[in-house]
Specification:
There is one protein chain. The protein is globular and about 40 Å long. It is built from 4 helices and 9 strands, in the order E-E-H-E-E-E-E-H-E-E-E-H-H. The protein has helices spanning 20-26, 74-86, 140-149, 156-167, and strands at residues 4-8, 14-19, 30-38, 44-49, 60-62, 64-66, 92-103, 109-120, 132-138. It has a single domain, classed as Nucleoside Triphosphate Pyrophosphohydrolase, CATH 3.90.79. It has a 4-stranded mixed β-sheet with strand order 6-3-8-7, with helices on both faces. Strands 5-4-9 form a 3-stranded antiparallel β-sheet. The chain is of the alpha+beta class and 169 residues long. 25% of the residues lie in helices and 37% in strands. The longest helix is centred in the middle third of the chain and has 13 residues, at 74-86.
Length: 169
């Protein structure tokens, strides 16, 4: 079954469904969520996308980012993907939502109405190797330094979402 995304207006009114790749090729606005997880030291969890991902492979990004299915809330989708990608469960709190558009290369676009959630996690991971090749925690200070020195190591949407996140602190 091909994966579909939920197309929406800027007011989050559902316009229909579209195959994920087609939506990314056409830059169609669709629902998404992003999860920022922190350990007890306040460090942010990063995941490195698997080498086999169709865009942005081997790049570091936030803990989880994906799309809710047509029958899911944003929160339900976020919890599902935490389990599917990292093998974990954590309580999540909604923080904000916003719209962004990012060129992710290969004539693909992320144009998303993104709901951002935060949570805490200090346990063990069971990473799905088709999704994630590595995880690590990092201080915000070191993350900002790395992003300045090697921006190509990070996904385009993570750079945008992190900036927006800092404005909502």
């Amino acid at each position: 079954m091909e994966e579909q995304v939920v197309l929406v207006s800027e007011n989050d009114e559902i316009l229909g469904l579209m195959e994920k790749m087609q939506a990314h090729e056409n830059g169609m606005l669709h629902r998404a969520f992003s999860v920022f997880l922190f350990n007890e030291k306040g460090e942010m969890l990063l995941q490195k996308r698997a080498a086999t991902k169709y865009h942005s492979p081997n790049q570091w990004t936030n803990a989880v980012c994906s799309h809710p299915r047509s029958n899911e809330t944003y929160l339900e989708g976020a919890k599902r993907r935490m389990k599917e990608e990292l093998g974990i469960e954590a309580e999540l709190s909604p923080k904000f939502h916003f719209i962004y558009k990012a060129d992710v290369g290969q004539n693909l676009w992320e144009h998303e109405l993104d709901h951002v959630f935060t949570g805490d996690f200090d346990g063990e991971f069971e990473m799905n190797p088709e999704e994630v090749s590595d995880v690590r925690y990092i201080t915000m200070e070191n993350l900002e330094k790395e992003m300045l020195e090697n921006p190509e190591h990070f996904t385009e949407w993570f750079k945008i979402i992190l900036k927006e996140y800092k404005e909502h602190l």
